[in-house]
Each structure stands twice: as structure tokens, then as C-alpha cells.
Amino acid sequence: MSVVSAGVVEHTDRGPLGRDEMARVLAGDIPRGAYVNLGIGQPTTVGDHLPPESGVILHTENGMLGMGPAATGDAIDPDLINAGKFPVTELPGASYFHHADSFAMMRGGHLDLCVLGAYQVSVSGDLANWHTGEPDAIPAVGGAMDLAVGAKQVFVLMSLFTRTGEPKLVRECTYPLTALRCVDRVYTDVATFEITGGDQVLVRETWGMSFHELRSRVDVPLTAATP
Amino acid sequence: MSVVSAGVVEHTDRGPLGRDEMARVLAGDIPRGAYVNLGIGQPTTVGDHLPPESGVILHTENGMLGMGPAATGDAIDPDLINAGKFPVTELPGASYFHHADSFAMMRGGHLDLCVLGAYQVSVSGDLANWHTGEPDAIPAVGGAMDLAVGAKQVFVLMSLFTRTGEPKLVRECTYPLTALRCVDRVYTDVATFEITGGDQVLVRETWGMSFHELRSRVDVPLTAATP
Amino acid sequence: MTRLCTSVDEAVSGIADGSTVLIGGFGTAGMPFDLIEGLIRQGARDLTVVSNNAGNADTGLAALLAAGQVRKIVCSFPRQTDSWVFEELYRNGKIELEVAPQGSLAERLRAAGAGIGGFYTRTGVGTLLAEGKETREIDGRTYVLELPIAADVALISAHTADTLGNLVYRKTARNFAPVMATAATTTVVQVRHVVEPGVLDPEAVVTPGIYVDRIVRVAAVQGRAA
Amino acid sequence: MTRLCTSVDEAVSGIADGSTVLIGGFGTAGMPFDLIEGLIRQGARDLTVVSNNAGNADTGLAALLAAGQVRKIVCSFPRQTDSWVFEELYRNGKIELEVAPQGSLAERLRAAGAGIGGFYTRTGVGTLLAEGKETREIDGRTYVLELPIAADVALISAHTADTLGNLVYRKTARNFAPVMATAATTTVVQVRHVVEPGVLDPEAVVTPGIYVDRIVRVAAVQGRAA
Q: Which family is this protein grouped under (chains C, D) (predicted)?
């Protein structure tokens, strides 16, 4: 099923990953027992692929460690929500704290990992994920900038191409930046990338596309991961 | 018993105040319900003159509001001490917090009042109370600088003269400073002073000394309080 | 000293036109709905409001915006699907917006409460939100200088207060309230329960009474955070 | 991830010569006596110790100083009547001393834990302790710039931990421990009790487990804080 070519694991016998599969691939790379913040939107779905035995402890920036799955039915409590404002649950060993303490935790480099969505990621790991830059867009940053500079590792979860086919992995971000040189890995529907800080991006795995095809569709120097 | 001269209440028919009386006079000027920090040493004794009905709530910088009187006998708990490291008690409505929160409270201007000892106080309210300036003295500041800049009002409690008769109310401090322009009132054994920020110090009351005698013994321009 | 008020109107009395008002809550969790309704009745205008969001649906902060009492809002995330009141005012040029990273917002409030004149943070470096702000290299990293946000009034919500003003919160409804309580000249709190001193565990008090000026007890409303 | 150690020696293992070590406690309240004894056995030398005081009598921090393992101490109040061990070392030029205002010490530790590159405080302005430090006018007031104190190791004491590392303290023994826990690469905690996750009230956890690397349970000693 998998073809190894130039060091990249290529899954060319199948199509690109669906949203749920992308989340599962990323979840599989989260170390056991890590403290993790999942950004709002698609990154939140990564939590569905983290079983209790992973020991992963979820942080939500609105003041909680030990967040559990989404709340349903009678378990819905308006005082217990995640950063996306959806009702969630509390796991044994949870703790609550106020916003300054919560962001001190983020900004102080204590989270092992955060997962964020993105409009664009650059070769050097610059992230653009908060503002389309359109003149009439209402700017809204939330905790994205704090997470991007604060977490020990930043994983981006996004489709590799826009609806109009433009790659979102770029030489230089054209959207307004969230933070400089902060992204470590990019998980997309067609490939997983590692940002090394050099002038090349490492490709670890592809889905429904060969390394060579990927190279032709992305205007960024790509290197194959050494197997 | 009291003679009013030039606006100052003069108690010349008796001697200077004892240490306990000084503490009582100061305690009488603490507003009902105030949040107060009493410095280590003599200022701590002010607490003995604050009955429960005063509603005064004591702060200790090692992390507590609602500190009660000294603990004795079985009530002594090594986990419950004041800033001078003596065992104390807890009153109903007390709360505990860590050192950064405790000093944020002090430095953020939330305490109504602190009472500090002093080596010297200047006309403009400069305070020197942490360091004798002697070359072989071990410097030790504790929370004095934080209290002096942070509390809404700073009351100093001290004898007016050193053992060798030098006045401790001075034009300019010669001891190393704790903070600039921070003292509001000075309670001594022979007089109570108000620092107004001008080039004169106001005398409110004297004990065992007339206003005129006081003037002759202190090298600082003194004005009588208007009655 | 903390005063226990007998009505919401008493609790919000005296808020002046032109005040800076901190409003607790993250979305609707911890939003002080009753105090905001009181502020609408009280009528102070030309307000600068600091709150994480810019109102949801038509109640709470959104209703205050709709009442035309707010000149400017400082927040981190005004673009929620149900922030239509804000969006219309903003698009019509009827409200000023200052966006701040959520962590800088929280830390700037803490700084005001803690006597910090300013602090250096890495958040925002190299972005639009650091434009015009001073930057500085410390230990080989670039930081941006952020200044405190002090306010005239904080309107917050807590779960239980004792009569000395000590507060405890409930779950993620705690959010901004404890830092806002420290950053305002007058802190007004709506609570679900009021108890005598000594009932709350001194180890578990989150906001000590020194930060609380007025308390008012409000009834629980179904499906709405206290 | 938090590791529950089976001995004090395991808990303090690997501390390198030349490390900066934060030691909790205010006087003896909250002082991690067992961990300090472990550090003496472990033998790391040339340490920089950050602690509010410079040791009391002949045990705890004083014993570590007497063992000659400390090159420099950063503290606010080294001059207690029973700080004779420190005093003798200091007078003989065998230890360096940096005195910091207690609030600046606490805030500098918090800054290290919170990713703050530096902050402006009014404490110390115009005094010996601000000499050589940058000052700045903000809003008409003078402030001094203070920098974070980050450390390799924190040795602290708490009352109860759960196995995820969540901590609660007891009364004024809390003092510096929560901020120190945030400021060190490795935080080691001695506790009186260890419980399963879910036993501690999530609203009352003071130090979340994310800040705690190693826990070791120690026996209560009469007349000595945990």
C-alpha cells in the first residue's frame, strides 16, 4: 500500500485524506502524556482521536487543564465550555484557573504542543491564521498569537490548497502574520511536512500524490525526509 | 490635660509615649474596615489595638488576608506565620495566596495602609528603613520597598530620636533609601507628624514636649496643624 | 470595604459617562448579564468597554452595544457568528475597535492590578498588532512592550461571595473575572450565593475581598452562566 | 509528565553542578527540608540558590550553605537572627549575595514562568537596589526594569499532590512555591499526601500538574512545615 520513494512514505494508491483522517494522522504523532492545546475549528477534532490511554492532557485557554470530550444532553453546563465556546466535560485531575494564569501557562512555554489551523505557512515556519487581510474583514485574533509563540511545538492542520487551488505552504506569507518562525509541522490532506528552519521543507508522507507531483504543485523547495 | 497651642494638641503635662501607647495612638487613626499591612517589629504591635469591631483586615505579605492575633499553645501551626515568622491565627473570611499574588496586591495599590518602622523620614516623605549603610552590614530588604511604594498610605511608627539623641525626622535621609516620597504620617513617642509633600512638616500632636521645644530639637521646618 | 447591595441598580449606580468598563466573561460563560442590564438602565454613555468578545446574539454585552452606550471596545475576538450587533455598528463606523491578543489582554489587565508599568512579551512580534509598539531584544529574542489597562469599573460575575467580598467561581466561568477585579477602581460583582465570612475555604478563595467593592445577589437563570 | 518518585534521592537526582536552584519557603514555612537533605547527599556544587531567606539555624537551606555547595544566593532577607551559617560564609567572602525586594523577587520568578521578558515596577526606584538598572517614565511615574529569574530546578513543598502533579498547599506555607514551580525547567515537590486524580477539587488546585515534574511523599515531622 505504501511506496517509499526518495525517503518519503507515499500513499499514491489512494486519494487525499479526509478531514477526519487528517486529524487522526496528527493525533498519532502526539506524544504520550503531552499537554496539548487544540485550536478552535478543525484542530478541535484531533481530540476525538486521543483515547484516555494516550495520557494526553488537554488545555483550553479559557482556563482549564484536563478538558474532556464535548458535553451532550444533561451534561451540558453553560459554565463549562472550550475555547470555541462549545460545551465540554471535565476529566478527573482537571483544574481551573483564570485567564492571566492560563495565558502565562501558554506564553511561558509550558504546553508541549498546540494544533492550529492556518491560511498560510511559510518555509521558515511563519504562520498566518488570524486575518484575511481584506479591507472589510473584522480582525479577530483570540489566543492564536499567544499559542503560536508559546507552545513548545506548533503543529498546523490545514488543507494544502485553497478552494481555488493555491498552495497554502508558501515562500513568504502574504496574509497578515500570526507569529514568526513558530510552526514545526504541517499536516495536510495530501502531505505531512516538517519545517526545519532552513530554506527547504521536509516532506514526511504523501497521500494521493507522489513526492514529485507535490513538488510541481507547491512553490516551495521540498526535500524528502531521510527514511 | 491637653493644651492647644498654635493649633497643635500638646500633652505637656505628661512624658513621652511608651511603645504600647504609640501603637495605640496610631491604631486609633486607622479607618474602620481598612486593609492594613503591619511591618515586622514594632509596627506588628499595632494589631493588639485593633479590636474585631474595627473591621480592619490585616494582610501579611507571606500570603494571607484576614490574619488574626498571635497564636499560642496548641494553636501554634508552623504553616501559619506572619511576615516576622511568628505563629499567628486565621480569622473567619481569611484567604491565602502565593507570593506573586500577595505582592501584586501590595504593589498594585490595593492596601489602604501600611505601618513601617524607620531609621529616618525626610521632609518630603522619603523613607530609610532597610539598611544602616554601614560597610559591614548585611543588606536585607524583605518587603519594605514594595510596601512603601504600594500602599495607599504609609504610616511610620518610630521613636523620634536615636539613642544618642539625633532626630530621625530629617531634611534629607543620610541612610540608604527605601522609597521616595512615600510616607504620609509619622507616629513617634513625642509627636505625631503629617508629611504634606511641601517643605514643611505638619505637627498634629505632642507628648511631653511643647511645639516650640520640638521645633528646637528637630532640624526640619515644622508647622502647627490648623485646629 | 465591600458593600452588599440590595439591587442591581444600586450596584451599578454612579458609573460616569466616558468611563472605562471591564466586562467579564468568555462568550456568555461568566458574563454578568444582570449588571449589564443594570448599566443599560443606568444609562452611562461614551463608554470604553474591555471584554474578550464583542457580544453574542442580542443580550448581555450585545444589548449594551445596541443601546449605543459604547464608544470603543477593546477585545481579542469580536468576530463570532452571533456578534451581529457589533458587526453592524462596526461596519457603520459607529464603534471603535482595538484588537489585542487574548493573552496580552489578560496580562495587561493583571499588570494594571499589580502595579506593573509595562511588560515585554513575545506575543505579536512581527505582526500587525505590534505596529507602533516598541520592541526590544532581550537575551537574543525580540519582545514587544505592552502597557497596563486600568479601568474605572469592572462588572463581573462569580458563583459565591462572602460578605467580606471573597469570591469563588464555577468552572470556566472564572476566565477574566479575577484579573478584571484587580484592575478597576470599583469592582462590582453579581453572585448566585452570599454567605457569611468563614464559610468559604480560605485555601480556595480565588478573589480576595480586597478587590471587591460591591456585591449583589441575582437569581439563577436557566441555561445562563451566573 | 509528572513522575511519582519512590525516594527523595530519586527526586533530586541529576541536578548538575552550577545549576540555579529555586528553594521554596518563607523562613521555615514551606521549606522543602527533605529535598534539601537529598540535595546535600546528591552533592551538586557551585549552585546559585534563589530563596526568600538565607537559611535558619542549622537545618534546611542553612545546612546546604554549610555544606559549601552554594556559590551565590539571591534573596530578599538574609539577615535573620538565626541566619548564622549564612552570616559567617558571607563575612568570610565565601558566598555571593544578591538582595532583591521581595515583591520583585516573586514577580521576576513569575515573569520567567509566564514568558515575560522583563517588566517595569516602581519598587526600588531611587534606591541602592535599582543601581545599574534601567529606569523609565511611564505616565508620569518612574519605573525600574526588572528581568526574569529562570532556573534549572525548583525544590518546593506542598501539602497534597495527585498523581498528575496537581498541588494544594497549606496556609502560609504556600508562599513562593507556586511561582517557583512555573520558573524552573524541572520542578521537584515533596508532599505529605499523594492521591488519585479526581480527589482534589479542580476549583481549588493551586499548582496545575503541568508545572510539576517529580513528586515524592515524605513523612510529617513534628513542628516542621511540610
A: Belongs to the 3-oxoacid CoA-transferase subunit A family.
Give residue limits of the domains in chain D: 3-217
Is A57 a member of any domain?
yes
Determine whether the interchain pair D117/C120 forms a contact, defined as Cβ–Cβ distance below 8 Å. Answer: yes
Q: Which residue of D has its CA nearest to A98?
A: D203
Which residues of B are marked as active site? 61
Whether pLDDT at C226 is above 60: no
C-beta atoms of A104 and D166 within 8 A = no
How many pairs of residues across A and C have Cβ atoms under 8 Å apart? 143
CA angle A38, A40, A44 (to 5 degrees): 50
A199 in a structural domain: no
Q: Which helix (DSSP H) or strand (DSSP E) does residue B195 occupy? A: strand B191-195
User: Which of D119, D136, D142, D205 has the most C C-beta neighbours within 10 Å, making it the best mutation to test the interface with C?
Assistant: D119
Q: Find the CB nearest A108 among D164, D166, D182.
A: D182
Mean pLDDT for A80-108 is 97
Q: What is the pLDDT along chain B (227 residues), one digit of tens a residue?
A: 455 556 889 998 889 999 999 999 999 999 999 999 999 999 999 999 999 899 999 999 999 999 999 999 999 999 999 999 999 999 999 999 999 999 999 999 999 999 999 999 999 999 999 999 898 899 999 999 999 999 999 999 999 999 999 999 999 999 999 999 999 999 999 999 999 988 999 999 999 999 999 999 999 999 998 76
Kindly state the DSSP code that residue B47 receives in the 8-state scheme: G
The answer to whether position B44 is within a domain reads: yes
- Distances in Å between the Cα of D155 and the Cα atoms of B152, C160, D3, D46, D175 are 35, 35, 15, 17, 13
Distance CA B39, CA B41 (A): 7
> Which residues constitute the domain of residue A178?
18-187
Catalytic residue among A21, A53, A61, A213: A61
Instruction: Determine whether the interchain pair C107/D116 forms a contact, defined as Cβ–Cβ distance below 8 Å.
Output: yes
The minimum CA-CA distance between B212 and chain D, rounded to whole Å, is: 34
The reported pTM is 0.97
Contacts of C181 in chain B (CB under 8 A): none
Cα distance between residue A44 and residue A23, in whole Å: 9
CATH number at residue A157: 3.40.1080.10
Cβ contact A99–C26 (<8 Å) = yes
Q: Is residue B128 part of a domain?
A: yes
Contact D117 C136 (CB under 8 A): yes
C225 pLDDT above the threshold of 80: no
CA C209 to chain centre: 17
Q: B197's torsion region: left (phi>0), alpha (psi -120 to 50) or beta?
A: left
Fold annotation for C3-217: Glutaconate Coenzyme A-transferase (3.40.1080)
Model ipTM over 0.95: yes
